[in-house]
Amino acid sequence: MRKFTRRVAVAAVAATAALGFSAASAAATSAATWTVTPGGSFSANAANPTLSVPNADLFCDASDASGSLKTGSGNAGAGIGSIDSLTFSGCSLAGISFDVTVSSPLSINAESVDSADPDRVVGSISGVTASISDPDGLCTASFAGPGGADATVTGYFDNSTHQLVINGGNLEATSANCLGLINTGDSATFNAAYDTDPAQTITAD
């Protein structure tokens, strides 16, 4: 989180328009079961993930994930995988280091094939809650879904790049004490592209 800058309303609208597993799903083809290759345990890394709220952008240098995917064919899309650890590093806000904590395990869900790009599997990651804080307690905020329920972030898995891309969902600030830059009820958008290792492929049966 290298910068923490005030946003005008136009920038907030632009951030909201960037959402995406949900925007793609309107033009997607549903699949009953899925094949995962190779599946099993995986790790993943994203460079420069961001969290955007109407008044601010929060930046990190990197995020690392580890978990597992089902293997072979005939797998249901719901719970096709899990993320058992999700960490963030190099996070700062207005030059101040920040800690980011995210709940685990999280569920990876495959929902449909994007009819506009057959390499993309539209889906979601569910069970998300998160919090941020600086060492001096000048800015703290918690994030979940509406009403404090676990949130779902949305995006797609790209078989051509073997990346899990997150760019939408229903995250919002459920509590905030952050100099008015993050306010309770603010919608939040998480953006990240995770490279999987070993490289994974998810296709409709």
TrEMBL record:
Residues 1-26 form the signal peptide. It comes from the Bacteria. Keywords: Signal. This is Tat pathway signal sequence domain protein. It comes from Streptomyces qinglanensis.
